[in-house]
Specification:
Structural class: alpha/beta
Shape: globular
Strand content: 15-25%
Distance between the termini: 24 Å
Radius of gyration: 16 Å
Number of strands: 6
Length: 194
């Protein structure tokens, strides 16, 4: 589909999904690169390790050829989150791998990517400090969306918070929990954050 549309492509799996499907980062990477070759994919393609807490899993993914990894230490205090994230950035840089981190807590309804359904919104000033101190390439922000299908509450992007984060940071901002978010809300978030 990406090749037909001439669109860049991101294929991802999280640490919890690796465990759930009993597959290794190496097996995923081997199949990903085999399919790129077999299908003669020429559009930019990224293999991303999403929502991962274990540095060993991140290291294995980097060594297997993942081009992007996410350290999710968002449940830890800010200082610990920054320390763990810095450690991942140090390793990833030597391989040319992009690093995403999470600040705040992005809730979930299916418990696949994360273990809890609670939310704690990203504090803009903390986002500025976090980005400066860690050297990450992308920041997953908690601004009102949640992973999974919205059955009870409706998604609402906190536009003011997102705008404040954008004004204080210059990295890519990642909006997790987009499934079921109305297109105009996604478009509005993109207009703010890029």
């Amino acid at each position: 589909g990406a090749q037909a549309l001439k669109s860049p492509l991101i294929v991802q799996i999280s640490q919890r999904e690796l465990a759930r499907y009993e597959v290794t980062p190496q097996a995923i990477a081997d199949e990903f690169y085999a399919q790129l070759a077999a299908l003669q994919i020429t559009v930019p393609a990224v293999l991303h390790l999403d929502h991962t807490r274990d540095l060993g899993v991140i290291q294995a993914a980097i060594e297997a050829g993942f081009t992007s990894v996410m350290i999710d230490a968002s449940e830890r205090p800010l200082q610990e989150n920054m320390e763990l994230t810095r450690a991942v950035v140090e390793v990833a840089r030597s391989f040319g791998v992009s690093v995403e981190a999470e600040l705040g807590r992005i809730g979930t309804t299916d418990f696949v990517e994360t273990e809890h359904d609670e939310e704690l919104y990203t504090v803009p000033e903390e986002a500025r400090l976090f980005v400066r101190e860690t050297g990450i390439d992308a920041l997953a922000v908690s601004v009102g969306t949640a992973h999974g299908v919205y059955l009870v509450r409706q998604p609402k992007v906190d536009v003011e918070r997102l705008s404040a984060i954008r004004a204080l940071t210059d990295v890519h901002l990642v909006l997790h929990g987009g499934s079921g978010v109305p297109p105009q809300m996604i478009a509005g978030a993109i207009a703010i954050a890029g």
